[in-house]
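retry 2 of 3: previous attempt timed out while embedding NAP. Reduced batch size to 1 and resubmitted. Inputs unchanged:
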Amino acid sequence: MQQSVTIVTGGSRGIGAAICERLAADGHHVVVGYRSDDPAAERVASAVRAAGRKCLTVRLDTVNEEDVDRLFDLAAQLGTVTGLVNNAGVSGPNGRLADADAGGMRRALEVNVLGYLLCARRAVRDMSRTGGGAIVNISSAAATIGSPGQYVHYAAAKAAVDAMTVGLAKETAVNSIRVNCVAPGTVWTEFHADPERPAKVAASIPMGRAGRPTEIAGAVSWLLSDDAAYTTGAILRVAGGL
Ligand code: NAP
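retry 2 succeeded.
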């Protein structure tokens, strides 16, 4: 694992930050992709370097094709990219579909679907040349629950992430590229329009609590590891029983 170079989009905060720190502990050099929060990205980079790994931070919008190419071009400075974690996501408008604005939904669909596809496309192009690798897509338990009254458009976008995982895994197995998905339940991050949502939904979760970002990161690290060498096309639900 010493030579692993892994790109984590949305690596500056929340689940992505925990993934970066866990991957560093597990021997990965890490490229932190983020949208706007420079200090947060630098904090994660410091933690990765403190663990003895190399780290680059790259500010980008994952829905922009040129940005995605720049992300991968810069990442190559750390070595051959062997891993991608498609994690950068936004919920868009909260509430009933009847009240949702088109612009907010369009942005959520672009970030959660097109952004993942653009990053995966570039990863597949590179990894097919360099001997393979592994991609982990962060979906959501919302993909199968549907999130009525909250964000049906987001659930639909995450269902698309599940579908792209299955299809791309089959398409790229011949290129020694594994593609898997982690589907978290509600996790304590700044993702939620209502910051107290993780506490409010606890009673509806069989384990009685929301998850911690570190509990998602462990699953991602395993899927990127050699221990998961025969695992591809899997959707691993990490949702406290939800
Ligand atoms: P978060 O705390 O809001 O962090 C989002 C991260 O993504 C930040 O680093 C942000 O960068 C980055 N980002 C957002 N849009 C981007 C874009 N267009 N281009 C590049 N970077 C972008 O979110 P989170 O809770 O950690 O969620 C991470 C993933 O898990 C998402 O895909 C989300 O859908 C999924 N998920 C979350 C939960 C949950 O309960 N939290 C549950 C299930 C699934 P800046 O800070 O610089 O803007």
